[in-house]
Amino acid sequence: MESIQLLPQDTRYGVTADGRVWSRCGTRRGWRELVPTPDTRGYPKVKLGQFYTVMVHTLVAQAFIGDRPAGMTVNHIDGDKANASACNLEYVTQGANNRHAWRTGLQRSGWENRRGGEGVV
């Protein structure tokens, strides 16, 4: 098993560099893997405890890159929302994240998004 980095906000949970989230709550046998579910935008999320839901990429970035600097957001380098591995994440400004989405074709123009298809040029 890969090395589990404990979450600083709750050491009952941890993450691995490949983006898996683990819990040792309610089990006597050690760690168990939490199964993420996609949010409405397609980002994997997990429930920590009864009321706290968090995005997997946020947990992995915090554990392996460090605390998120003010004004920064997490960017998926390869553009794959489901790939929350530490080597695929970086902190960037929101503007840089938007430019990355445009460059890689992940973001269409506002007109295309509203119309659900190709925009008129």
Description:
The radius of gyration is 17 Å and the shape is elongated. The mean pLDDT is 87. It has a single domain (5-113), classed as Alpha-Beta Complex (Homing Intron 3 (I-Ppo) Encoded Endonuclease, Chain A). A four-stranded antiparallel beta sheet has the order 1-2-3-4, covered by helices on one side. It has a three-stranded antiparallel beta sheet with strand order 5-6-7. The chain has a two-stranded antiparallel ribbon with strand order 8-9. Strand 2 (10-15) and strand 3 (21-23) form a beta hairpin. The chain contains three helices and nine strands. The chain has helices at residues 56-64, 94-103, 110-115, and strands at residues 5-7, 10-15, 21-23, 32-34, 37-38, 44-48, 52-55, 72-76, 89-93. The chain is α+β, with helices and mostly antiparallel strands.
Strand content: 25-35%
Name of the CATH first level? Alpha Beta
Helix content: 10-25%
CATH topology category name: Homing Intron 3 (I-Ppo) Encoded Endonuclease, Chain A
**What is the mean predicted local confidence, pLDDT?**
87
Main sheet makeup:
4 strands, antiparallel
Give the helix/strand class.
alpha+beta
In order across it, which strands form the biggest sheet? 1-2-3-4
- Bulk shape: elongated
CATH architecture: Alpha-Beta Complex
Identify low-pLDDT runs: none
Number of domains: 1
Distance between the termini: 52 Å
Number of helices: 3
Q: Please tally the β strands and state the result.
A: 9
Listing every helix as H and every strand as E from the N terminus to the C terminus, the arrangement reads: EEEEEEEHEEHH
What's the alpha carbon Rg, rounded to whole Å? 17 Å
